[in-house]
Each structure stands twice: as C-alpha cells, then as structure tokens.
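Re: the 249-residue chain
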Amino acid sequence: MKKDTGRVRDQLSQRLLALYHMVDENTRFCDVGCDHGYLSIALVQDGICPKALAMDLRPGPLQRAKMHIESVGLEEKIETRLSDGIAKLKEDEADTVLISGMGGGVIYHILADEEEKAKSIKSLILAPQSQLVLVREYLRDAGYELVSEDMVLEDGKYYPMMKVSYKGKEAKESWKLLGGEEVQEAAMMFGPCLLKQKHPVLKQYLLYRKRVVTSIKDQLPETVSSERREEVEKELHLLELAMSMWEGK
C-alpha cells in the first residue's frame, strides 16, 4: 500500500482537534471507540504520543482504522484491538484514555463496569453525547478530579468534553462552584469549568437550549403530567441560572 505522508492533524474535524489538544505530551494514548483512527495517527505523527492503541467494539471501523494507520506507515507505533469499552485494555498499558463518540449511559457503564481499571488510568478524556449529568455525577461521586472541559459546535451539534483524573474523596471540590444547591445542579448540567471560564460555545448552547425548552414548555398539552411539566420548568430555570452565572450576575 502506498504510504501517505500528509499530516492527519490538518484534516481533523473541530471536535477531534479539541480532543487532540486535551492529550498531554509524552503519554501512551488509547482511543476507545476509535472509528477511523485519525486521532491516534495525528498524535503519533506529531510526536505528542510515542505510541497509541486504537480500540473499537465493531470490526468494520477497526479494519478501516488499521488501513488508515498502515497508509501512513505507523503500524509499528499504533496497535488496533477489538474491545468492548476498556475490557481488553491491559494493566498499565495507557496513561491517557479517550472515550468518545457514544452516549453518556454507555460511557458510565464502561467506567463503572471496569471501575478499578478506570481509576488506575492517569487521565481520562470523555466526550459523552448525552446524559452529561449522569456522567458528571458519577465521576464526582467516584473520586475523579475535574481537570478541564471544552466544548465545540460542529455541523449544528454541540460537543462537550472533559478531562478527569482519579484522586479520591478530596476531588469532589473540583466539581463545585461558589453557591447553593441550585448552582451545583447547574454545574452538573452544564459543566463547572465551562461556566467558570465563561466558555463562548457554552453561551451559544445555553441560548439554543433555552429556545428549545421554552418551545417545549409552550407546547405542553393541558393533560401532561405534573412531573413532566416540573421537569421542563426546572430545566428552564437552571438554564436561566446558568446564563446569569455566565454573565457574572
């Protein structure tokens, strides 16, 4: 196969580029749900990571990743492996593990089902596409320190991402913002670091989500359950609170 010497980093999407920048230099990298393997290739090509492991649950995407890796001549530095989550990751095989491209419920189960293995990894980079509160609350209660967060808007979709590291009980403080119970709820829903740093994409998301939830509220039928109505009103209230926090009010 002819070797392609082009830099893969230049071809990364906004989402993948943001994840690229969250990876520490000189770490052994593992991409769970690697899809085409582009991120592993870019990190090794650029010398950020000496080697990488690209894993996926599905044989098809894994085969495509293998082909892409071979096309740039990096098969000696990037291994591909069929794995359900981190089940096939060996002990002390990776310093940084990325889990992305899947729902929050799946990410939660990957971490909870392999709890001790997950906690032994130096850095986890997570990009859940749903159920962010579930993921954040699990990480907080399990003793993970929130290191950083980012968010990108790509092709009309918002992609939040976070880096965490297991530290134990004292790590809970990293998830807290100054304020009462509702402030902490907003932090879990929208991201403590994103709110604290007044992330510009978060503001776009808050405005977008407020329009969506307001429309849902306006169209609720009279027969809707009180629980559903309260749920919608609660989200709207937390959106307004988050916006006022972002604006520093």
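Residues 8-175 form a domain with the Rossmann fold fold (CATH 3.40.50.150).
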